[in-house]
Amino acid sequence: MRNTLGYRATIGILVPARNTTVQPESEDMRPLGVTNHVARLGFKGMSRAPLSSDFKVNQYSQDYHSAIDLVRLAEPDLILLGYSHDSFIGGVRGGEALQAKLTAYAGRPVVVPSLAYRAAVRALDLKRVAILTPYVSDDDPLVRAFFEELGCVVVRIRALEFKTAHDIAQMPEAVIRDGLTAVDGRDVDAILQVGTNLPTARIAAEAEFWLRKPVLACNTVDYWHALRTAGVNDRSPAFGTLFSSH
Question: Residues of the chain whose pLDDT is less than 70?
Fold first, then answer.
């Protein structure tokens, strides 16, 4: 039997402990008949201090299984990993390996952000892109290499250089708009934003009107792919080109 509220699909979402953006943005995009069920990734003692480079990479990987154990109790149809950074490590093969590992443990499909972006790039046939990230510039090669492996020319990439994960969620909307404008140009056919804690879903949809091209926010791409994987094909112009056309 299907859930009374989630009669079309139930989606588990793994959210980093510090992340305050994935959950509300996913709820905003949730169609009638679909329910979201969140479990937190992390561990006790995580502070507000700036992340060292060695801590930042794979900081949540030690908690994947315990978070899956919790959200699996809700018996979701699939699980969305709401954490993008590590899914870019190792390029496409790295993303595929991570997704396969989590899917095998969960016993149901798991969607990871990097491969959700692969689906979006293919759906929109993107060739020349600009990228906005909340990361430090040291992470630019990691992100650039992934999209280049997909066949995209990365014309520009800009890191907003956050100091803490909380700072990402507290980024003023004006800073995000300025960042999207700064990477734009006639030489790109789309702007991509990676990083799930940067609150960009609604701003990206609005930006398409004045930039006149697809602007894809990370959480929009992730949730779109989760819905399509679950067989839910609702289209909504409120969240931009990807949601309204594919």
Answer: 43-62
**Measuring CA to CA, which residue among 38, 86, 42 is closest to residue 64?**
42
Q: What is d(CA 174, CA 105) in angstroms, rounded to the nearest whole number?
A: 41
Q: Does the domain spanning 117-217 belong to CATH 3.40.50.12500?
A: yes
**Rounded to two decimals, what is the model's pTM?**
0.92
Say how far apart CA 41 and CA 15 lie, in whole Å.
Answer: 6
Counting runs of H as helices and runs of E as strands, what totals does the chain give?
Answer: 11, 8
Token pair belonging to 77: 């149809």
Q: Which residues contact 180 (CB under 8 A, 6 or more apart)?
A: 132, 191, 193, 203, 204, 207, 211, 215
Mapped onto helix, strand or coil, the DSSP state of residue 151 is coil
Rg of the Cα trace of the chain?
Answer: 17
**Domain 9-115+219-237 fold:** Rossmann fold (3.40.50)
- AA identity, residue 87: S
**What are the helix (H) ranges across 57-136?**
64-72, 91-106, 113-124
Q: Are 208 and 185 in contact (CB under 8 A)?
A: no
9-115+219-237 and 117-217 share one fold: yes
Is 18 in contact with 198 (CB distance < 8 Å)?
A: no
